[in-house]
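Hey, can you fold this one?
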Amino acid sequence: MSTPVKERELFRISAAGTGRRRRGGPMSSALRTAIPVIAALVVAIGLWLAMSYLLLSPSRRFLVPPPEQVLLDSFGNWKHLQPMLTALGLTAEVALVGLATASVLGIFTAIAMSQASWVERAVYPYAVVLQTVPILAIVPLIGLWFDYGFTSRVIVCVIIALFPMIANTLFGLHSASQGAHDLFTLNKATRWQRLTKLQLPAALPSIFTGLRTSSGLSVIGAIVGDFFFKQGEPGIGTLLDVYRARLQSTDLFAAIILASLFGIAVFAVFTALGKLVVGKRS
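Sure. Predicted structure:
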């Protein structure tokens, strides 16, 4: 076989292999992502079963009810599942309102800090203090000042979720290169043009990093608020406390699973949204 023929044949084989890899790329990537998650879930369920059936005697098995009992008695019984879903809906509303409020406040605070160094020096230490003060220490004051209902729960979410939004957005606003700033200066760009066309686009990845972090913290804040502010409709945190007090272990485990799944879902939504938005701009 002549050299040109060999080269064409090698090129054809290489192109075919590349095409197969491209076609199998997304599927193989999905499998690589799913297999460790499924394996970890299987291990967790195995440990759960071992603890229920091997480590605990039948008289103490109510402390860690086996998975099939939680599935049948709680998830499979509408009388038990319906109050959990209703409570989870209220907790979700609190978490999302708190997250939206923290996001708006955090982004605008970070913008103000990036535009004036004196604002950053004045505000940032208090943002750090707000993050480091134990939320349980100021929950009684929040309830005393703002009552013990929906508003107080939202405020707890905002306090917990605010700092990651400020810190990540501020970092992103400062991440634009000096060369890009020099180019805007040469073109006599206004402060508004520099902010909207350079700093905010550069800050988008950091903003979505802050959203992912704050989304999980907001769910935690909503559940903490449920524990302490019990006026009005009960949230999932309120039910957790009730199930604990009544030793309703199957319902307690089911409520924990629902709250965890909600937190994972919120985190996944903002992760996908961040990839979509940032990917489109890249």
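Confidence is low (pLDDT under 50) at residues 15-23. Let me know if you want another pass with a different chain boundary.
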